[in-house]
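The following block was generated as part of the benchmark described in Methods. Ligand: manganese (II) ion.
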Amino acid sequence: MKRFAIVHKLDDASQKMARIIKKQVGAFMEYDEAHPELVIAVGGDGTILFAVHKYLDQLESVMFVGIHTGTLGFFTDYNRDEIYDLINDIQRKTPKVFPRSLLEVHSHGQVHYALNEMRLENNRHSQVIDVYVNDEHLETFRGNGLCISTPSGSTAYNKSIQGAVLDPSLRLMQLSEIAGINHNAYRSLGSSLILGADKYIRLKTVNYQYSVMCCDIEDFELYENEVIDVMLSNRVANFADYRQVSFLERLKKSFL
Ligand code: NAP
Ligand code: MN
């Protein structure tokens, strides 16, 4: 790879680390913010989300690698003490490519992408959502909202609403409820539903007042009677895997 760019968090530690990396990697690669082949994210998992959304239109020619200014993250393979390991690996190694699945969200004639999840949330009214899987009606959900996550996003928002943790190499998506109302009059599945890549989820509702749709770090307005289709995309975010950190290692470092 010949061209790189850096995306960093705005705190002092991340800015300082970004300056060092830019100078050192700049000695053997060209800094090209507009058309990089390697994007180095300095900060945390949230910084990777930001980087992927920044380069959404170039995913086919960009690879991502992350260094955490805290500890190890789910998208970041290096911690703050390993800055020179990262620089050496970039200079000397050819990385394996680790493709991470993205969700594709079709709404209002537009396509949005998510590396972690899309969620439809309403914290003022109970949101009614008709859920279809490949044109078949599953349920009429009522509650705060729904979250559809990728395996990579399973340890993020999805985990805090008791969704399952999934191996990020799987091509699956997971539908989880956000505070669903479940009693004799209203009923939805209650547990997370994991679906394969041949499925798509359609969300329909007549009233979206006060609700918001988020795809990772981006949020979108919703319109009356809008239909939202969510599926696994054929597009992926490619990560430059220089050191093969195992998924169990990340899980243990973060949660155990
Ligand atoms: P953010 O500050 O960028 O991220 C919120 C936290 O989620 C940070 O600690 C971040 O790690 C962590 N995170 C992000 N992706 C992760 C992943 N795949 N696995 C494990 N942890 C992950 O916040 P934001 O801008 O509001 O939203 C970005 C993401 O935050 C969303 O995609 C959503 O998944 C998550 N979020 C979670 C909740 C919740 O759990 N209730 C609520 C809102 C948002 P770093 O500190 O390393 O950046
Ligand atoms: Mn983190």
